[in-house]
Specification:
This protein has two domains: 36 residues, no CATH class; 222 residues, Collagenase (Catalytic Domain) (3-Layer(aba) Sandwich). The chain is 20% helix and 27% strand. The strands form three sheets. Strands 4, 5, 6, 7, 8, 9, 10, 11 and 12 form a nine-stranded mixed β-sheet that branches. A three-stranded mixed β-sheet has the order 1-2-3, with no helix packed on it. It has a two-stranded parallel ribbon with strand order 13-14.
Amino acid sequence: MAGRRGPGPVGRAVTAFLVAASLAVVCVGEAPPPRACALARGELTVDDLPAGSSVLDCAAVGRVVTHEGAGVAVPEPGTTVSVDALTADGAGHDFTLRVAADGTVSYAYEAEPARAAAAVAGARADAPAPCADGAYSTEGRKEYGTYEWFIGDGPLPGRLSHAEGRRAFEDAIATITTSRNDCGFDDRVAAKARFLSGTGNEAGIDRAARCTRRDGLSVWDAGDIGGEAVATTCSWSRPVPNGPEELLEADVRFNTHDFPFTNRPSGACTHAYDIRSVATHEAGHVFGLGHSGPGHENLTMYADSFACSTGARTLGKGDVLGLRSLY
Ligand SMILES: [Zn+2]
C-alpha cells in the first residue's frame, strides 16, 4: 500500500514544515514556527550562542560564554555585561555581551595580541608623553548617579589592612571622579563615588577572570583570576534611550595569586605592581573608559600594566578627555 511505503501528500507536507522550522525559515503570512535552541552542557563559545540568537529560546541565562579566553555569564534580558582585563603582557581580553530586552544576544570584542616585554618597553619609550597624548576610548556606559562601592573582607593586595586598602582604592577612584592630572587640565568631570563598607560578598569574577554573577553590590577585592590578568573589572549596565548605558554594578578583583603588589614602589622594586596605579586604571573602567590602544603606553588607560611604575596614578590628556566626553 502506498501509505505504508512512504509518506502520502499529508506526510510530505509535515516533512516540509519540519525542514522549514529547523532552518528557521519564516513563512510569509503565517506566524513563524517557534525556534528551538538546544545548547550543549559545559562552557559555551560565541559560536554556540551566535549574535542574533535568543537567550530565552536557548535557555542561556546564567551560562558562561567565552571568546579568546575572556568569558562572561549571560545576564538577564535588558542587561549588558563587560569584562576588562589589565594584563602583564599587553594582551587584551575585553569582551562585552549584550542581551536586548527581547532576549537577543550581541557581542563586542577588543583583542590585542601579546607582545614581548622588550617590545612593550620600546613602544612605551616611543609613545607620546601622557600630557601630549589625547587618545581615549569609551565603553558606551557611565555612572549616572553615585558609584557606591564595598571592600571584600578577604586579604587585599600588598597585604594592606582594610583601612589602608580603603584609602588606596578611594584615592584611585577619586583620581577618576575629579580627573586628577599633572597636565594642568581643570576638573570638569561630574562623576561621583562613595565608599559604603566592608562586605562578606565577593566580586563576581571567577578563577578564569570571567564575570560570573551580579549580586547588587560593587565589590573591590583580591584573589585568583587566572595567570594572565593583573586585575579585572566586570561591569553590568542597562540601556538608556539616547545616551550611554547606565552602570548597575562594577566589581574589581586584583590577582594576588599570580602577581605581587605594593603600595609604595621603591628603588628596590623589581616586579611588584603599584596598587594605586592598577586601581586607578580599573576605576577608569568602572566609570566607562576603555583602553587607549597600542602606541599610547603612557596613558592610565593603556591595557598593559607596568611593574614598579606609579605613572598611572595620575591621568594623562586622553584619560581626562575620555572622562569629559562621558561626564
Ligand atoms: Zn583595562
